[in-house]
Amino acid sequence: MGKFFIGMLVCAVAAFALVSVASAHFAMIIPSKDVVGKDDKKEIGLLIQFTHPFEGGPQMQMDKPVKFGVVAGDQATDLLGTLKEKKVDGKSTWETNFKITKPADYVFFLQPEPFWEPAEDKFIVHVTKVIVDALGAEEGWDKPIAATAGIPAEIVPLTRPYSLYAGNLFKGQVFKDGKPVSGAEVEVEFWGKGKTKAPTDAHVCQVVKADHNGFFSFAMPKAGWWGFSAVMEAATPLKREGKDKKVELGAVLWVHAYAME
Ligand SMILES: [Cu+2]
After folding, report:
1. What pLDDT shows up at residue 13?
2. Among positive and negative, which fits the CA dihedral 210, 197, 221, 106?
3. What distance in angstroms lies between residue 161's CA and the mean position of ligand 1's atoms?
4. 3-state DSSP call for residue 2?
């Protein structure tokens, strides 16, 4: 994180920061469209990156992911080989195109390499999803995919996670290792790209807590992409220089809200 090292602590540890900037880092999968209609081009672009979405940076390094693929119906397809690296501010981001071949809800998923965060003395793994509806399928968005995709955590939407309006209440359920996570803390951030002003630093990253069954909800006040990141601790630590280090396991979901005309 270079020169931004000090100012760049996530909201979870903002209380300990000398310079308190309440931005959080999020892994992102952003498709060029969240709903592909029958008259649309049957191909979408996907952007993968690790950054601070509200402020539009500083960009963080995203190594080639451990897993990247899509679940449609009950089948997972590995798309890791399709990713093309693109450097932004000297950090790796990834891009690919995906051809729509049938009506389905396409659940794209990403499991990044553990990212070492010296400021927090831990690794970060943000397992990320985004859901694209194609050709009027409107089916499959509410199904957990962790077992099919082989990922350790996920947010399962209860609100249909595409064709949303700004102002909608988004509801989701946090799962880790196949079980709902009681009291999970969910960080919420708008992909403001640095163009949206926050009244205070604390406004950058919103926080909601899940209930005993892992359910949370959040009303999105603005049109654009919204990221929900349930921040947990992985069951197993990872070694760094011979020492056990905690792993922050995030379950991230991105949804797009449209302005209502
Ligand atoms: Cu960061």
Report:
1. 44
2. negative
3. 26
4. helix
What spacing in Å lies between the alpha carbon of 237 and ligand 1's midpoint?
20
Give CA angle at 149 (53, 166), nearest 5°: 35
Residues with CB under 5 A from ligand 1 (ion): 8, 25
Q: What is the pLDDT of residue 22?
A: 57
Listed residue (200, 184, 150) closest to 22, CA to CA: 200
CA of 8 to the centre of ligand 1 (A): 5
CA 88 / ligand 1 centre spacing (Å): 15
- Average pLDDT along the chain, 261 residues, taken 10 residues at a time: 44 40 84 97 98 96 98 96 98 98 97 95 97 97 98 98 98 97 98 96 96 98 98 94 96 98 90
Cα–Cα distances in Å, from 211 out to 23, 24, 182?
24, 22, 6
Bridge pairing between strands 104-111 and 122-134: antiparallel
Tokens representing 145 are 């995919």
Tell me, in angstroms, the distance from the centre of ligand 1 to residue 118's CA.
Answer: 10
Measured in angstroms, how far is the CA atom of residue 69 from the centroid of ligand 1? 25
**Residue 102 is which amino acid?**
K
Distance (Å) from CA 234 to ligand 1 centroid? 19
Ligand 1: centre distance to CA 25 (Å):
5
For 189, other C-beta atoms within 10 Å of its C-beta total: 25
Phi and psi, residue 26, nearest 5°: -130, 140
User: pTM score, two decimals?
Assistant: 0.92
Going from N- to C-terminal start, the domains of the chain cover 25-258
5 Cα: distance to centroid of ligand 1 (angstroms):
8
What gap in Å lies between CA 231 and CA 190, rounded to an integer? 17
pLDDT of residue 30: 98
